[in-house]
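Priority: medium. Attachment 1 of 2:
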């Protein structure tokens, strides 16, 4: 990468390609390579660094080889490497050095006429690794001219002296350590809080106690390498490359490709060993939940709501047929099997909410329903049937994170906080609630109302504030796991993404048909990178969170899709509930040969173009 300009000027001749005369120069005292790094030996002999001349016994230089060498030398003089080419050579050299291929590094630097790092940086590196702290301090004076910030020298000296102090303590040299603390560290007048902590280590009774309290590896290569990594952050890259720079760049490239991949839906692994660097990262749409895996037909009327449990092991579906069905998710096949049916909801079930620990499930009905049902999912028993007044409309509910309370309300002006037995704890008068959500702090409750807004309500101090204001009715909304983003289904507008912290509209997603029906969308996939929503045109739409256009349109339902739910534990599993009386479970393409799999693409429209 292009150097940032630091450390350039007079010293640039040391860092750029050297001329043919310089190629043969020794970069430092014996024991180092021409590239400036600590040398290895070949059968006990130092690796040669001369420019093209043989050093073995009995070797002669013929006229032909001399002429050939002259031609190569002249070509080198003609070809001046660009800054980017020099950077690449240095990166390759650093990586090869890390693998122990020092002779290869010598040859690369000799032939290219480049150096891995400034000679002063090389001396500094070697002295740090050998624990020669006085020499390393002297090296800082040479490096001072190559740095922009004078304060950086003080910080680097502090780090050196701290390592020196800790190593003295480990060796039992308490007096020497005390001298470093009082005579060298304290006069720096830097980071006095840290000096107080370091002074406390004088009381450590043995080396293991010191390592534990200081969270330090101990004297040796590991701690000195870690020290060097910290010191290198203060040096310009033209002087000394940041540690493992090529691995860092490759990792960034892999992460960027994953971020740009429309269908990437697996756990992020930062290790380069998990990917091939020889090919660009591409996820197939066939790995994405675009294909119907199962159609659940047990409901005998419109299905208004569906929701996976927090642990992803169950799915609850609510219907106009007055029932709630609990489905068990097979952890291996991801097939759903009917677990139990909860009956008796006379008005139908239009909303469901799992308790944080998935023990309970609350069911609400449509606008004319004044009752709320709290079921024990494990036993199938009804724990609470709550109704404050026959005039109420309890159409939405949200659990407090403590699992001991919930809030409920409706469009007739009810807004209650209750315990598990349905006892009224608090109420808020005159709020016509459309949808509810409890934030993770356990205090704030978000409620969308009939004024086309979402407000935050605090039941402890009875304060409220405006957070989101739309121009059209908010039919439903949901919030991301981290509480930062809200996903709104807005009448006649579609799906909107809001940042709750900055209170700004982030994105409007296109394609979905949203009128005045209550349609529920959701976040999903690994890291909640995706958004899905039902639609009045009988489809399920899926977007990548960062893109306004859908990446998939799932067809199969024959009437309005009221609700979608993404399995929080299985990123490749999605459920949708529809007025056609079915629940569809979507997953990746089945394991078929390529010709058969291509035939399934009619279920999932490709939106890449």
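Attachment 2 of 2:
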């Amino acid at each position: 990468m292009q150097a940032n300009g630091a450390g350039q000027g007079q010293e640039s001749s040391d860092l750029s390609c050297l001329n043919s005369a310089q190629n043969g120069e020794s970069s430092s005292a014996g024991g180092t390579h021409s590239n400036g790094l600590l040398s290895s030996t070949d059968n006990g002999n130092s690796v040669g660094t001369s420019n093209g001349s043989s050093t073995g016994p009995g070797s002669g230089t013929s006229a032909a080889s001399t002429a050939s060498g002259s031609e190569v030398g002249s070509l080198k003089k003609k070809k001046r490497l660009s800054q980017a080419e020099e950077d690449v050579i240095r990166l390759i050299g650093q990586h090869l050095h890390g693998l122990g291929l020092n002779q290869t590094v010598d040859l690369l630097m000799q032939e290219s006429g480049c150096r891995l790092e400034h000679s002063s940086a090389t001396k500094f590196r070697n002295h740090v690794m050998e624990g020669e702290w006085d020499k390393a301090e002297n090296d800082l004076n040479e490096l001072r001219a190559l740095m922009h910030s004078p304060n950086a020298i003080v910080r680097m000296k502090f780090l050196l002296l701290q390592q020196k102090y800790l190593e003295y303590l480990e060796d039992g040299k308490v007096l020497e350590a005390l001298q470093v603390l009082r005579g060298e560290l304290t006069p720096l007048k830097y980071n006095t809080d840290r000096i107080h902590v370091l002074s406390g280590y004088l009381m450590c009774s043995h080396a293991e106690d010191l390592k534990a309290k200081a969270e330090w590896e101990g004297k040796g290569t590991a701690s000195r390498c870690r020290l060097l990594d910290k010191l290198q952050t203060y040096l310009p890259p033209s002087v000394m490359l940041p540690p493992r720079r090529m691995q860092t760049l490759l990792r960034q490239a892999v992460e960027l490709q994953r971020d740009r991949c429309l269908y990437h839906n697996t756990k992020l692994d930062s290790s380069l060993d998990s990917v091939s660097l020889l090919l660009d990262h591409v996820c197939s749409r066939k790995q994405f939940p675009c294909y119907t895996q199962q159609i659940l037909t047990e409901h005998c009327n419109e299905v208004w709501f569906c929701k996976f449990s927090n642990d992803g092991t169950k799915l609850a579906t609510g219907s106009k047929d007055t029932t709630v069905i609990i489905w068990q998710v097979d952890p291996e096949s991801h097939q759903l099997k009917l677990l139990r049916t909860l009956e008796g909801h006379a008005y139908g079930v239009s909303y469901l909410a799992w308790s944080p620990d998935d023990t309970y499930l609350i069911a609400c009905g449509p606008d004319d329903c004044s009752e709320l049902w709290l079921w024990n999912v494990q036993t199938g028993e009804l724990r609470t049937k709550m109704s404050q007044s026959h005039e109420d409309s309890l159409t939405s509910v949200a659990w407090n994170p403590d699992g001991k309370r919930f809030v409920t309300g409706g469009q007739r002006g009810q807004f209650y906080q209750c315990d598990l037995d349905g006892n009224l704890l608090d109420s808020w008068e005159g709020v016509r609630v459309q949808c509810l959500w409890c934030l993770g702090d356990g205090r704030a409750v978000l409620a969308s109302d009939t004024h086309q807004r979402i407000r935050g309500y605090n039941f402890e101090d009875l304060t409220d504030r405006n957070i989101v204001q739309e121009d059209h009715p908010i039919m439903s909304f949901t919030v991301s796991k981290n509480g930062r983003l809200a996903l709104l289904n807005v009448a006649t507008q579609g799906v909107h993404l809001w940042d709750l912290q900055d209170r700004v509209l982030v994105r409007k997603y296109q394609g979905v048909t949203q009128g005045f029906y209550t349609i529920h969308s959701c976040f999903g996939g690994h890291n909640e990178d995706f958004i899905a929503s039902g639609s009045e045109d009988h489809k399920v739409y899926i977007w990548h969170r960062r893109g306004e256009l859908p990446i998939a349109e799932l067809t199969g339902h024959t009437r309005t899709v009221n609700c979608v739910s993404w399995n929080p534990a299985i990123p490749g599993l999605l459920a949708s509930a529809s007025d056609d009386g079915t629940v569809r479970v979507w997953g990746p393409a089945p394991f078929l040969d390529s010709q058969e799999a291509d035939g399934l693409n009619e279920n999932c429209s490709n939106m890449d173009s």
